[in-house]
Amino acid sequence: MKKKSLFWLISCFLTIGVAVWFNPNTVSVDTASQKLPKPRYSSIGDYPAALNGDQFKRTPLHIHVQDDQTIDLQMKLKLSKALLERFKQTAHPPTFSFAANVNQDVLSPYVKRKQPAHVTVDFTSISNRTIVIKQRLSLKSALTPHQKKQFLDAENYQFLFLNEHDAAAGIVFDLDLSTWDSR
To answer: Model's pTM, two decimal places?
Structure first.
């Protein structure tokens, strides 16, 4: 008798499950109400304390003189899981830029423009939590040997975490040093 009851119970559940599965009126999914979760932060300015050396590692700034009037800048960053998640959950994600070191600005008078003016990153497509920031400086004229030496010195630059208004929310100095862990 128990086998018949169990069989009857299982067949009832299967019948109800099939009826629900085939009847679109029984299960309604409102796709319009299924939205992506709201960003947790409005701006990178909401978490300035998180922009510290514990939350990202970096290579030294690589500076390459392309020709007499072009200089390429490149630096690799490895973000902590926590910082990457914050960037992903920010309505206005940060952008990045290199700038002349404000303490000893010997570069700005010779720069015509930066390309791009700031670097945008799609944080949802990052693998290994690693990003590469590249910028090109177009110079007003050919550099003298002394000016070239200044442009090749990483201590004359700073790295900026920018908010949605292109204002610095975080600044990194000493770009000649690496905090990258090669292990």
So the answer is: 0.76
